[in-house]
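Task 17 of the worksheet. Students: predict the tertiary structure of the chain below and write it out as structure tokens. Keep your answer in the requested format; marks are given for formatting as well as content.
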Amino acid sequence: MTRNDQLVFRIALGLSVVALPLAAQVVEPKPTPIAKVEVVATRIPESPDKVPASIEVISGANLRDRGVATLRDALSMATGVSIAPGGDAGPASAVPEIWGLREFDAFLLVVDDIPWGGALNPAVASLSLRDVERIEILRGSAPVTYGATSFVGVIHVVHKAAAAKATYLSAHGGSFGTGGLSADFALPSAGNWNSRLSADADKQGFQDDRTSYSRGHALFRTSKVDERGKTWLSADLNILNQDPASPHAREGKVLSTATPLDANYNPRGAYLNENRIAIFGGFERFILGGATWGTTASFTHSAQRQFRGFLTDISNTANNASGWKEDIDINDFYGDTHIIWPERNKVRFMAGADLLAAGGEAKGATFTYTVPLNGASAANVIEPTSLNKDAGNDRKFFGAYASAEWRPTTALNVTGGLRLNMTAESRGEGAEVTHTRPSGSIGVMYSLWEKDAGHMRAFANYRNTFKPAAFDFSLAENEGVLDPETSNSYEGGLKLRSASGLVDVEASVFRMDFENLVTATVVNGLPALMNAGSTRFQGLELAADVNLPHNVAARATYSAHDSKFVDFVMAFDGVPTQLAGKRFEMSAKTLASAGLTLSPETGVIAHASMNYTGDRYLNKRNTALAPAFSTFDAGIGYRTATMEFRVDGRNLGNRRDAVSESEFGDAQYYRMTARTVRAGIVVKY
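Model answer:
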């Protein structure tokens, strides 16, 4: 560990060390432990500290206490997680890094038990954090119960139940012309049916030239609970219009000084728009033998329209930029049915099957244009009318799965899962490619110490994971189906709760061996994807939570990641280069965070946090090292029984470091968004 890493480690963990003796003091009002529940790993509501895997739960109350508006804000204090705002999917999107891997499709996004993005890529830009009950984060591979699997983590966003009665009305405004209105409220009941509606309209501006997004969103939920079980139906409508930013080009080892900060090289009137509607529902029924039969289904239609461009030559020469216009229409279906049997002879068993089916077609055209390098003006480009290029993808992921949980003693818990994957996929006019193969997991948790609300539990797990390669509808991608990605991962750690349940500490180590990782490349001047041979990810992750008197909560995290290529040959300027031993690009060696939240029922509310991102290489050949940086967020407000006033600042130090690499612009990087201040009012009744 370097001297800088040691300093960050002390900062990140010093908060919890100082807080430990304070938590033991008897001071009025006394702090109270907060019960947490997850379903992402088990489908059954269960405390995360009883599951042999690294699981973190962030409550909706915590999100509101911190004035959270984006996924980056929500997960800023999550262990070993770094969220880069924006990215190729537009300023409304984000690119997570989990377990040291920053790839847009390496994680699984789930919303209310539905894979959000289906059999394709996570639909982050359309994610709503309005009226959230909790966010569950499972680090490592997804459980066998999801057909759209992941390798490094699952982010599960759970909205409030349809039967929730609280009403929230809110308004906000802030930097760069930002503003919005929202409402969450219960609708009149109809017999046993309870319904709830969340609706919001938002505009977010940025310091980057000609960069913003506006969104109209509505989420309707209705459900019925009776003696037979539960039935529910939901509909989510998202209308998103984005004016995209430009990534910053790199020259040699550093970001170019020839291109100004916040310059936008998109053609005038560039857009990245999506209309998305999702309808999903299901039921749970009590059947013979005390078992529960559950079924969920969803259908989503997404209409995406793009007109954008990227700088291709860092010079004031003709045709120094290229772009494309593309219309993409995607339909996807998800269905799952399973049975959960009650515990018998200390064993609980679940079995089921699921299907993910997606079909998408893109029509587009490419063009070149000239833009001034200083970004002083936007290029006027006539949108192509003849869309003579195409990209298509049809895929079906079917799987049958079973899992079991065995508790032979009160101290020992053994879990296991097995899945048979059957996939079929075709791209463009190519032949269909099929794969049939198993995947699975096994985990063990042993209680070393239990007393009252306290415990110390050791856990370990092994997971074998399979996933067909990503597809992003690039106009260069009709060359065939890539090889599927596979991984073997190993994880072990400790979960500690002490001080009458007021202190939680978790420590874990992991290793993941990855084959055929999908990475970005360029084909005939257009962005495309390719397989990346063998890679290895390993690391150490620590987190501590302390509930203090007077409604104060403290949290600190530290992660050390070591992500490297094992065997991957890639051509640079026509020369094949072996990358074995090189660090994976954009993977920070160190991540750390520390924060405090003051959240009484009434009175002054406040939060403050720091996030540290260690050095990382900007490129695969490890010639361009980006220095470490820290960001600071803080907010303050006042809360009454029915109203809340608050002001929140993000990235107060105004750091503009490179945080994610573009897969479309060659050797180009999106920066951390500039400092923002946001003021808001919430009315609750």
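Marker's comment: The two ends are 51 Å apart (CA to CA). The chain has one domain: 3-684.
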